[in-house]
Amino acid sequence: MSYFRAEIDKIEGYTPGFQPKNAGVIKLNTNENPYPPSQKAIEALANLSPEQARKYPDPTGLEFKLAAAKVLETEPENIICCNGGDDLLNLAIRSICDSQRPIAYPVPTYTLYPVLANIQNCPIVEVPFEAVGQIPSALYKTNAALTIICNPNAPTGGFIEPQKISDFAKATKGVVLIDEAYVDFADDNCLKLVSKHDNIIILRSMSKGYSLAGLRFGFGIANPDLIEGLIKVKDSYNVNAATLAAAVEAIKDQKHLKDNVQKIKQQRQRLTDELISMGFSVHKSFTNFVLAVWHKGDAQWIYNSLAERNIFVRYWKTDDLKDKLRITVGTKQQNDKLIEALKDILA
Ligand SMILES: *Cc1c(COP(=O)(O)O)cnc(C)c1O
User: 176 with 149: CB under 8 angstroms?
Assistant: First the structure.
């Protein structure tokens, strides 16, 4: 006999990427930004007052919403602050889905979606991508209460043009959540769709572009009615005072973001070219990682050989991904070491 609900006993839970403890490892497995966050964000943390620690934080994160609305050219009432983008995924699934109200999403994609959906006990419709950068036609026929489109997608790195997502949202009765966790590394985004569609939620994260994965901050942008529904479900104080203070400074420091993104895009191109010259095929990436397909099949031995050299990338054993490695774009020095190790392993 179990103490848990049947749904909980049935599921495995999400497996986060391995966080190695030993010093000197090259960690290219969880898509963290290799560069430090804005110095102003770090100063905000250092300058946190005893009063800020003593009192509850602002439950709405108004200061962040004002700063973000200015940068993104939207309104504060279109924004919800979250404890990481994952918090928003949880809020959306809990407020929109149940056993009669399915979730749908194209696969392969972020493997947290089915975990959250199973906890909520809602039916899951997984629709395989037909081509990178295209919405699979079967996604139009799911009748889901919530459809998630990860764009740019993980782990493929591909990007669907906003116009295609706009057409999809128009044809869909349910809510469309566009997971833009990686959008800072893309050339376009779906923000402009929010004013045209009352059923779109955009997810943004400060973990990737803004180098703040450790602080846990993300936010949603949507029509105010959708935002209100999501707020009903969130923890009152879902974002702590220290994180809020840092997030305000981070979003204001767009120059820091752009400089880091520029460096990562340069290294992404270099890594892509080098991997192709070693016999991998690599889709064009719009993210801070590349998905390298090993032309001779199973890639686990390459993953293992890299791990023996203290270089960690991401590998999944599933049928659709077992011949692939997902590699976070690191600094030039980290990428030098990765490329050198791969040349050695494949020689
Ligand atoms: C990183 C990520 C998120 C959000 O991550 P947080 O660290 O919780 O902000 C959401 N979706 C995808 C696909 C991601 O890779």
Answer: yes
Q: What is the dihedral of CA 313, 340, 287, 239, to 10 degrees?
A: 50
pLDDT digits (tens, 9 = 90+) for 147-183: 999 999 999 999 999 999 999 999 999 999 999 999 9
Report d(CA 103, CA 264) in Å as an integer: 33
pTM over cut 0.90: yes
- The string over 163-192, giving b where at least 16 C-beta atoms fall within 10 Å of a residue's C-beta and e elsewhere, is eebbebbeebebbbbbbbbbbbbbeebbbe
CA dist 138 and 142 (Å) reads 7
Measure 192 CA to ligand 1 centroid, in angstroms.
21
Pocket of ligand 1 contains residue 105 by CB under 6 Å: no
98: DSSP letter: B
Rounded to an integer, what distance in angstroms lies between the CA atom of residue 26 and that of residue 310? 6
Tokens of residue 120, six digits: 């909520």
Quote the ligand 1 centre to 265 CA distance (angstroms).
19
- The per-residue pLDDT for range 208-219, each reduced to its tens digit, is 999 999 999 999
Backbone angles phi and psi of 269, in degrees to 5:
-65, -45
Q: Whose CA is nearest to atom 5 of ligand 1?
A: 85
